[in-house]
Structure to design on (375 residues):
């Protein structure tokens, strides 16, 4: 009988799949080390055909608990509908998928904040007060999850809410003396200021704000300004930047891997370089995943589609490589908009990608990052 075996560091567990690819009949055992894995296998009468030992799975040992936090609002966006996204992700099975990957998952349900009043721009921004209130709520919920030893997954909501989650993560990292690297997966650079923004919608500004450029109501959510050193903010998948914003991005010192770089060098090289930066400092990696990062052919359910994004396979590789780094500490899933979606397919795709981010693999395999990607 053939079995697949996967062994995790620290919290050592064994997965037996009776048939390759099967998810049924999984037998789970806790063992102390390799010797006992062999014994366990003999006792179970199964033949291991692959043994995977992941030295880099720091996360799996230290943190196996996940908190889902819903922030149902679109106050920072130009289009309505993002407020329905947390429920769309639940309907697509996010909690079940993570449980299947052996995480202890608590759905902390939805935060309740101010409604979208659909007012026009005032003093450069739309809905600044509402965005600040929502971000304060998000910061509180994410901070609680982190101090409880959970990996927070923020289910947005529009991308302005990431100001709140990054504020919490940055403060947590400062308290625990951990370096922070932010991976911003997005079609846009989200680095607008009122002078460069054509709309005043704050979902186009969160990176500028966490890098220290923005209204006091939002920059003050951080324990310090900038919340994150711009050289530790890495943008991937960018393909739409407003005119004045281009100059700001270049001057800011953030690291941008735009679509041209992905075209020329491939997702593998781009991700290896990005993760190398995080690995150098053994950083807490915060991933802010704007669903519009993905090519709209596969992910139509976003308000601001930009053609020419990563394909399904490129996105999977991106997520798998982040997982393999063992550094993932917190995640935002942002900008999903069920009003633009087709039978929830974008939410289902987002859940599929989050599964890869949290360790789903085609096969159990040894994934020592250094050897596998030549970092
Ligand atoms: Mn964004």
């Amino acid at each position: 009988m053939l079995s697949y075996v996967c062994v995790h560091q620290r919290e050592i567990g064994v997965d037996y799949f009776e048939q390759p690819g099967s998810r049924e009949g999984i037998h789970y055992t806790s063992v102390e080390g390799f010797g006992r894995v062999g014994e366990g296998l003999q006792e179970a009468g199964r033949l291991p055909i692959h043994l995977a030992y992941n030295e880099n799975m720091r996360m799996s040992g230290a943190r196996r608990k996940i908190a889902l936090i819903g922030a149902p609002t679109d106050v920072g966006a130009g289009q309505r509908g993002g407020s329905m996204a947390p429920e769309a992700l639940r309907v697509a099975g996010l909690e079940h998928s993570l449980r299947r990957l052996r995480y202890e998952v608590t759905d902390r349900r939805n935060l309740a904040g101010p409604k979208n009043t659909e007012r026009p721009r005032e003093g450069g921004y739309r809905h600044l007060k509402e965005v600040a209130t929502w971000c304060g709520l998000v910061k509180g919920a994410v901070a609680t999850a982190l101090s409880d030893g959970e990996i927070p997954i923020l289910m947005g909501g529009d991308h302005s809410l990431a100001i709140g989650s990054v504020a919490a993560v940055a403060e947590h990292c400062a308290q625990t003396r951990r370096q922070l690297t932010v991976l911003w997966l997005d079609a846009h650079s989200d680095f607008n200021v009122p002078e460069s923004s054509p709309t005043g919608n704050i979902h186009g500004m969160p990176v500028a704000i966490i890098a220290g450029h923005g209204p006091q109501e939002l920059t003050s959510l951080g324990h310090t300004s900038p919340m994150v050193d711009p050289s530790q903010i890495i943008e991937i998948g960018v393909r739409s930047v407003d005119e004045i914003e281009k100059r700001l991005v270049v001057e800011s010192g953030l690291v941008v891997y735009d679509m041209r770089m992905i075209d020329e060098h491939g997702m593998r090289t781009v991700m290896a370089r990005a993760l190398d930066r995080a690995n150098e400092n053994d950083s807490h990696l915060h991933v802010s995943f704007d669903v519009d990062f993905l090519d709209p052919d596969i992910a139509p359910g976003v308000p601001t589609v930009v053609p020419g994004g990563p394909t399904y396979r490129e996105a999977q590789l991106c997520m798998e490589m982040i997982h393999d780094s063992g550094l993932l500490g917190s995640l935002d899933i942002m900008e999903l908009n069920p009003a633009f979606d087709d039978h929830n397919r974008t939410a289902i795709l987002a859940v599929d990608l989050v599964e890869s981010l949290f360790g789903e693999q085609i096969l159990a395999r040894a994934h020592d990052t250094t050897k596998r990607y030549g970092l």
About this structure: The pocket of manganese (II) ion is lined by residues 159, 186, 188, 190, 290, 335 (CB under 6 Å). The longest helix spans residues 259-280. The chain has two domains: 1-57+360-375, 61-357. DSSP finds 13 helices and twelve strands in the chain.
